[in-house]
Amino acid sequence: MKGNAVYKRSYNGCLSICETLAPGAEMPSENEISQSLSVSRTTIRAVMAGLEAAGILTRQGASRRLTRRPEPTDAFPDTQTVSTSATVERRFLEWILQGHIGPGHLLTAAELARQFGTSTTIIREHLPHFQHFGLIERRPNSAWLFKGVTPAFAHEIYDVREMFELRAARSFIALPDPSPPWQRMRTIEREHRALLADIDTGYALFPDLDERLHRTVHETADNRFIKDFYDIISMLFHYNAQWDAEDEKQRAFTALSEHLAYIEALLRRDLKAIDRACRQHLKTARSNLLRSIELRLKKPPSL
Amino acid sequence: MKGNAVYKRSYNGCLSICETLAPGAEMPSENEISQSLSVSRTTIRAVMAGLEAAGILTRQGASRRLTRRPEPTDAFPDTQTVSTSATVERRFLEWILQGHIGPGHLLTAAELARQFGTSTTIIREHLPHFQHFGLIERRPNSAWLFKGVTPAFAHEIYDVREMFELRAARSFIALPDPSPPWQRMRTIEREHRALLADIDTGYALFPDLDERLHRTVHETADNRFIKDFYDIISMLFHYNAQWDAEDEKQRAFTALSEHLAYIEALLRRDLKAIDRACRQHLKTARSNLLRSIELRLKKPPSL
DNA sequence: TCCTTGCATTTTATATGCAAAGAGCAAGGC
DNA sequence: GCCTTGCTCTTTGCATATAAAATGCAAGGA
């Protein structure tokens, strides 16, 4: 009734630990392992039993020793190590962002449960989450209205993003030079330069760098609502990026240059330059999103 | 397994319709009633059957006629006309805002279900909602951390509120004079003057007026995230107001005056005055909230 | 033709059941 | 005295069950 993704993930985690051990060596204590994998000791004990059954470990009184090196086939496939809930979330967002349904479409929990092969419980737990994303709207005692990933959606999300980012930038420059965010920012600046120099082979690393830059700024605002909103943006962009790979290198290049102007202005504490660079960057990002949305609205459910 | 709050609410709604009818008169069609009460015809049919059983209506072929005037005792009590879900939401917010638990407290779904007398299903559906409010934070596979209604919470919520309100005010003054929001605003201005003149007896009407003013402004921003955030604020204030009745009249008076300055600036399209009046008003509101929060932190769970 | 009601089917709201995972205590070894 | 394991009890994740409510269609009447 309850999946065992935690067990499988921990099992794989323990296999990694085993690999660092010489045959015959003793396993760390249940406590140590459970802490390093952030799960309960109960789970670790179950995993240990599994590893013994697989002939990887042998018990001798209170201690467990490695009897054979684990092989790649011992591990559970990655797909089984994620909870149903997380899987549904991912699949739903992908489905939405790939444009399989249009604005105005009605979503019923029962149908979604069938489509994703789970129970309505899970679906009902997730729909409010997507409402928070601004993607759907509730009709009481009835279905959910899909509002669509439309140009309006992009503008609304970017209007808020701009307000939040500009506000956060002000908190950022209020911090002293030696503060951790400033140190991180200087590292990020260096990484930007390095990536720019090596754009042809490294452009795929950009999204991660992008996220770290903006999060570093946002964090200084020390505001849960701003952070929470950036979580939405971040998730949306993550899935959006997966199918909008066109011009990826060119876009990364432009964004890196704009970021550098922004970062320099931040480090100079030049408010006017910050506003200018930030607005310019968000403007570009907004039109990238708009472009990909409009592309999708034209050629529908193909993907 | 499913409550029948919809039935009871609709039953009461039909009783109201009956009261407008002369004895012997014919009821409207099932369709008409279901539309006016925003429920399905199925529910109306069930209600009709109930009204017949109660001797209020009699069927004659396809038509239903009023046989006796409904009495107050015919109606279901209001408490039974709200869904379990809505009840839990209200009770949970009240409980939180009354300060029965402090920041750092761990909330378990099982315990909350026991406390509120429902199943964990309902609780699990609501907890993410309160996370959206910024009140709680999830620990994976475990309990929820209550972050507390603290001064920090008030500041974070007001920082965002200020950004949104100022932004919305700019959209408001971009609209032409005859637009519906402007018309509504002029009505709201008149209501403010009327309430100020009659503050001693009418101050309890202020919260509703307050909400209408801010919503009128927010709506013009035409941004789902801004609206959504105002929903949070609105709900929070609604429940907060219920136990923070001290100085209510004085506070309403101050707010009305500040509102009027804000409204006048808006209607004059005077950007500087708008910013000044808006900031002043939100500053007052922020300190009112802070005051009530600090009061509560001092004298704990008593209420 | 457009509403009307009756009826059959689907979906929602909520509770319950159950395996997996977490929490905590007690007893023993270093 | 601290950390270990064993064990028990609680809580979580998810599926399923069921009454209430919604939806949709067919047939009849104005």
Task: Describe, in plain words, how this protein is organized in 3D.
Two copies of one chain form a homodimer. By secondary structure, the first copy, chain A, is mostly helical. The first copy, chain A, folds into three domains: 5-79, Arc Repressor Mutant, subunit A; 83-146, Winged helix-like DNA-binding domain superfamily/Winged helix DNA-binding domain (Arc Repressor Mutant, subunit A, Orthogonal Bundle), CATH 1.10.10.10; 151-298, Up-down Bundle (Four Helix Bundle (Hemerythrin (Met), subunit A)). Chain A is built from 13 helices and five strands. Chain A has helices at residues 5-19, 30-37, 41-53, 84-97, 109-116, 120-132, 151-174, 180-197, 199-202, 206-221, 224-243, 248-268, 271-298, and strands at residues 57-60, 63-66, 106-107, 136-138, 144-146. In chain A, strands 3-5-4 form a three-stranded antiparallel beta sheet. In chain A, strands 1-2 form a two-stranded antiparallel ribbon. In chain A, helix 5 crosses helix 6 and helix 8 (180-197) runs antiparallel to helix 10 (206-221). Chain A is globular, with a radius of gyration of 24 Å. Chain A starts with a helix and ends in a 5-residue tail after the last helix. The interface between A and B is medium-sized, with 27 and 27 residues. Chain A binds a DNA duplex (30 and 30 nucleotides) through residues 1-7, 29-31, 39-43, 45-46, 62, 83-85, 108-111, 118-122, 124-125, 141-143.
